[in-house]
Design goal:
Elements lengths: L7 E6 L21 E7 L3 H12 L4 E4 L8 H4 L3 E2 L7 H8 L1 H25 L10 E4 L3 H15 L6 E4 L16 E4 L3 E2 L2 H14 L3 E3 L4 E7 L2 E6 L2 E10 L10 H7 L2 E11 L4 H7 L5 E4 L6 E5 L4 E6 L8 H15 L8 E12 L5 E5 L2 E5 L5 H16 L27 H16 L4
Helix pairs in contact: 1-6, 1-10, 3-4, 4-10
């Protein structure tokens, strides 16, 4: 089937759908303080979750963001609350041993539970729901691999997951192109715009100063203290936290150290205009988020109550315009759900996350600077959980321990942060996915 109609509505937006209800405030930054206890670089969820705990402990906390707090991955994401680990349990066990693999997956489950508890405890209205997730197998081999992985994990972990073979996948998926699926029942989703705004409000209420349009240009040791240079002046502080993730630049030696340890992955998101209820129920009967086992997956999240679809796809591709991206995303949808061939999008936007060379998040300290970095798309729940852990470490509390802390943060010889080769890897992965699945997209 060939799509011929426009892929976007006449009044479509190129800003994230979440910004409609919760715009990113373009507040002019206040004067930077001459002194503070803690400087946190980055006003996304990671930095704000650290700031919240530290400010509530009585410390004077100042957050610097080069742009506007939350404008990047924290509010451009899928809103998924999942136990996302990019390496399978068996692969982790092979590389690092059973104990390490078990701890990694336990903490991934822990960050889902932490997020749910935090939202309830703070009484945050962000449309959080544990609706579950479907991981659709793009080929028979992928289904068999998922089943084996689940069997292995079940020996050591509580998994809250079950497999559906191809002849039963219609219970979860209104598509015939897949080869069965895994269903995760304990994970969920939320509105990341509302969530970030709520965390920011609570951090400010606790006393944290969050300053926009303040780019950190250098960090220098000054005896037992740090001098943090910005394009708006200098702040002297006792400790520094780096929480810039995919937005880490190259303004100074410290930033360059982290920049060369991650790869930026671009992708596009789009939200559809409202669809008929019967179409939503037929195509997504349980209204769970749907991901795939493909290397470069297409993710679909039904926005229940709004009868819209959120689609994420087209990793490592650059388009000439958002309209071109919208057509590509619609073709991805059409290949899986032909009745969505003429869908139109009201919002289309670009985002990115970063991956590390060992596919795991990292936290710890480097040259005296604390960091939470390289989240590998684990995003919203990992930010909160690991942000809390890092804050507790800074405060000297025992519950700051994590399997992700103080590990070797690997780099690759010759790579200095210029990921010019990623589009070629994207072409390769797409070709492998097409060959294995038989899909043209």
């Amino acid at each position: 089937m060939t799509t011929t109609t426009a892929a976007v509505t006449k009044d479509f937006k190129t800003t994230p759908y979440w910004w409609d209800d919760t715009p990113i405030p373009d507040v002019t930054a206040a004067d930077i303080p001459k002194q503070t206890d803690i400087v946190i670089i980055g006003g996304g969820l990671s930095g704000l979750m650290v700031a919240l705990d530290l400010a509530r402990s009585g410390l004077e906390v100042t957050v610097f963001d080069a742009g506007y707090a939350g404008e990047h991955a924290s509010t451009r994401n899928f809103g998924a609350i999942g136990r996302t680990i990019r390496l399978g349990f068996s692969e982790l066990e092979r590389r690092y041993g059973l104990e390490f693999a078990t701890r990694v997956y336990q903490e991934a489950r822990g960050w889902v539970d932490y997020t749910a508890d935090f939202i309830e405890r703070e009484n945050i209205e962000c449309r959080f729901k544990r609706a579950g997730r479907v991981i659709a197998a793009h080929c028979a081999k992928a289904y068999e691999s998922s089943a084996r992985e689940l069997e292995t994990m079940s020996r050591y972990l509580e998994v809250d997951t079950f497999m559906l073979p191809r002849d039963q996948q219609h219970l979860e998926l209104g598509s015939t192109v897949y080869h069965g699926c895994a269903v995760y029942t304990d994970v969920g989703h939320l509105d990341p715009g509302r969530y970030h705004a709520a965390v920011k409000t609570r951090a400010e209420s606790a006393g944290a100063k969050i300053l926009n349009a303040t780019r950190v240009t250098n960090i220098e040791r000054d005896g037992a203290k740090f001098r943090v240079k910005t394009d708006r002046g200098i702040t002297v502080c006792d400790q520094v936290v780096l929480a810039t993730n995919a937005e880490t630049g190259v303004d100074n030696a410290l930033f360059k150290y982290f920049h060369r340890r991650t790869l930026p992955v671009s992708l596009y998101s789009a939200v559809s205009e409202p669809l008929p209820v019967e179409v939503m129920e037929r195509v997504f009967p349980t209204a769970r988020t749907v991901l795939e086992t493909r290397r470069l997956y297409t993710g679909i999240r039904p926005l229940v109550g709004e009868n819209r679809l959120l689609v994420v796809s087209q990793h490592l591709v650059q388009f000439a315009s958002p309209v071109e991206a919208a057509h590509a995303l619609r073709k991805d949808l059409e290949a899986r759900y032909p009745e969505l061939a003429n869908i139109k999008f009201s919002h289309v936007w670009e985002g990115r996350f970063c991956i590390t060379f060992d596919w795991l998040p990292h936290m710890g300290s480097h040259e005296g600077v604390h960091y939470l970095h390289g989240l590998n798309g684990a995003g919203v729940p990992a930010c909160g959980y690991l942000g809390h852990k890092l804050a507790q470490r800074i405060l000297g509390h025992s519950d700051g321990d994590s399997v992700f802390a103080d590990r070797l943060y690997p780099k690759r010889t010759g790579y200095r942060g210029n990921a010019w080769f990623l589009p070629f890897i994207g072409h390769l992965y797409r070709a492998l996915d097409r060959r294995e699945s038989g899909l043209s997209r």
